[in-house]
Amino acid sequence: MKAIKFHKTGGPEVMQYEDITLDAPGPGEVRLRHTAIGVNYLDTYYRSGAYPLPLPSGLGSEAAGVVEAVGEGVTTLKVGDRVAYGAGPIGSYSQARNMPANRLSKLPDTISDETAAAMMLKGMTVRYLLRETYKVKAGETILWHAVAGGVGLIAVQWAKHLGVRVIGTTSSPEKAALAKSMGCDEVINYTSENVAERVRELTDGKGVPVVYDGVGQATLNASLDSLSPFGLLVNFGSASGPVTGFDTGILAAKGSLYLTRPGLNTYVDSDEALQANVADLFDVVGSGAVRIEVNQTYPLADAVKAHQDLEGRKTTGSTILLP
């Protein structure tokens, strides 16, 4: 079997395509042959060392595949089942692996392996952000940064399905057009427009009750300045680098604001919470309310190129690797 490993942290070039040996699945595990693997910006944090891992390490948190063997005590899955995951042990950049059975979800016939691999982590993230971190309500206006990315395009559609008005930010006219085609009401080009000023214009000076920000340091001030009093900044990612040196007094000065830094694993820690999240995701995708855009596909052996394009902002929507 082959897998992507890295023995030191750094740029995309530290990833290596290596031979691996796969043992029989242990108690509570299944052996999973991957058919499609999701690529997420989160993966670059682990690879670069921003999120430390014991080395050497595999990479990746999201994939779809077929169960090839079951370990002792596994009763919920059988050989031949199509499954997918977006939360669990790191190591999805591989042709096959052993996985805890309780972290897997059976795929319905309405969702292909490629779609599942492209949507699990991103879609589960959107679900907890919109339905738990801040429960959006019909008629509200929200701001979502990097709206043309994989998470952003899912979020736009899901928010519109819930009756929410979405203002998004992007870096190019092409990405703006893509976001609008998915239902984004207003798109701000942050390279040429003042985000906070435009948000105020689009909300009659009120600002928005919540900003979803996966960019981090570069968008911090614009996010805070776009909020209405008592508004919530949800900093769920750090694509531009983590927020550092933050003075909490700013929250009071700008309107008694709130700031949170959530993570998916906390929201799906229990098996029940995981499957409830996934059930909602399968429902909105299976019904057609949310369409998953797989806009880039690479062979697993070309993971370096996939990361170069992702970090170079050359991608839109979701990216997958094929084993």
What does this structure look like?
It is a single chain. This protein is of the alpha/beta class and 323 residues long. Helix 2 (113-133) packs across helix 3 (150-161) and helix 2 (113-133) packs across helix 9 (271-286). The model has no long low-confidence stretch (mean pLDDT 95). The chain has helices spanning 41-48, 113-133, 150-161, 173-181, 195-202, 220-225, 249-253, 264-267, 271-286, 303-311, and strands at 2-6, 15-19, 29-39, 63-70, 82-85, 96-100, 105-106, 141-144, 165-170, 186-189, 208-213, 227-235, 258-260, 294-299, 318-322. Strands 3, 4, 5, 6, 7, 14 and 15 form a seven-stranded mixed beta sheet that branches. It has a six-stranded parallel beta sheet with strand order 10-9-8-11-12-13, with helices on both faces. It is globular. It has ten helices and 15 strands. The relative contact order is 0.16. Helices cover 30% and strands 26% of the residues. It has two domains: 2-120 and 278-322, Quinone Oxidoreductase, Chain A, domain 1; 138-261, NAD(P)-binding Rossmann-like Domain (Rossmann fold).
CATH superfamily of the largest domain: Medium-chain alcohol dehydrogenases, catalytic domain
Estimated radius of gyration: 20 Å
Percent in strands? 25-35%
Helix content: 25-40%
Instruction: Tell me the overall shape.
Output: globular
Task: Report the count of strand segments.
Answer: 15
Give the mean pLDDT: 95
Low-confidence runs of at least 5 consecutive residues: none
Alpha-carbon distance between the two ends? 10 Å
Secondary structure class reads: alpha/beta
CATH class of the largest domain, named Alpha Beta
Order of helices and strands: EEEHEEEEHEHEHEHEHEHEHHEHE
